[in-house]
Design a protein that fits this description.
Layout lengths: L1 H13 L9 E5 L6 E6 L7 E7 L14 H12 L3 E5 L23 H13 L5 E11 L1 H9 L16 E4 L4 H5 L8 E6 L7 H11 L6 E6 L14 E3 L12 E3 L3 H16 L1
Parallel strand pairs: 3-4, 3-5, 5-6, 6-7, 7-8
Antiparallel strand pairs: 1-2, 2-4, 9-10
């Protein structure tokens, strides 16, 4: 019976491509640079709920200049689910490439990317097709780290506009955040692979446990047997090397799709933002 249910879910996830419109390239005014971004929109006039989505350390676009397949797939699916999705391009906007192998990153999640989050929120709240009170925050690995910095009580916006409604992150690195006595001011969902050897689940689990009693709601999910990038479509399990801050000599990490974790994440994240 379980196999039948999973097969049906896979047909829904892999068999039909989302019908949302192609992304639009925009430039968002920002304090220190012109912030390039991609916007995915549902069909219709809205107003729609929205999501600021933060790419991982590989960047938003590939070497060919096109959106990375994993990010584009999420943008399309979330737009089809009724969300406006804006992806700030934190790296290309500053003339930088991927940062996965860089132990001295040029763009830091707790500084430059925090600024990009604020600029993207400001832009969304100026659009007539966006519900300014229904904006969420979503991030993958390095983008997930930036999102977790952004939801801390110390980062609450000091304007009179609505704050982010909720946040969701996939396989963020939580070790340093845990050392800062992290907590969140908005409901936050953390999805990570229990077998992740790039951003270990234990660091996030400890961070969440230590925040109990002084934090807004946090839902932590560790998927048994899942590695980093478990949500990507048909990514064969493989090893990457020379990854900065990997918790082993040589920077060896494992990445790849985990079908059951992917099915759950693709369902759970839109539901989280629809609340």
């Amino acid at each position: 019976m379980r196999a039948i249910v999973l097969f049906a879910a896979l047909l829904g996830l892999f068999g039909t491509a989302p019908a949302a419109a192609a992304p639009e390239a925009i430039t968002i005014p920002a304090a220190d640079n012109a912030l390039q971004a991609l916007v995915y929109r549902p069909r219709g006039d809205g107003p729609f709920p929205a999501i600021v989505a933060l790419h991982g350390c590989e960047g938003l676009r590939g070497s060919n200049g096109e959106p990375r397949r994993a990010m584009d797939a999420w943008g399309q699916r979330l737009a089809e689910a009724g969300f406006v999705v804006v992806f700030p391009d934190s790296y290309r906007s500053r003339g930088a490439g991927q940062q996965c192998n860089n132990r001295v990153p040029k763009i830091r999640p707790e500084r430059e990317r925090l600024s990009d989050i604020q600029s993207a929120r400001d832009w969304l709240q100026q659009q007539t097709f966006v519900r300014s009170d229904r904006i969420g925050l979503l991030g993958w690995d390095n983008g997930g780290i930036a999102a977790l910095w952004a939801v801390r009580p110390q980062q609450e916006p000091d304007d009179d506009r609505p704050d982010f409604r909720s946040a969701a992150v996939l396989y963020p690195g939580c070790r340093r955040l845990g050392d800062t006595a992290w907590s969140t001011r908005i409901p936050t969902l953390i999805l990570i692979g229990a077998a992740d050897n790039w951003t270990p689940a234990k660091h996030c689990e400890d961070m969440v446990r230590n925040a109990r009693g002084r934090s807004a709601q946090v839902l932590f999910v560790a998927y048994k047997g899942a590695h980093h990038a478990f949500d990507q479509d048909q990514l064969p399990l493989k090893q990457r090397r020379k990854i900065a801050f990997a918790p082993n000599p040589g920077g060896y990490v494992t990445v790849g799709t985990n079908t059951e974790a992917r099915v759950d994440a693709l369902k759970r994240i839109p539901q989280w933002f629809q609340r």
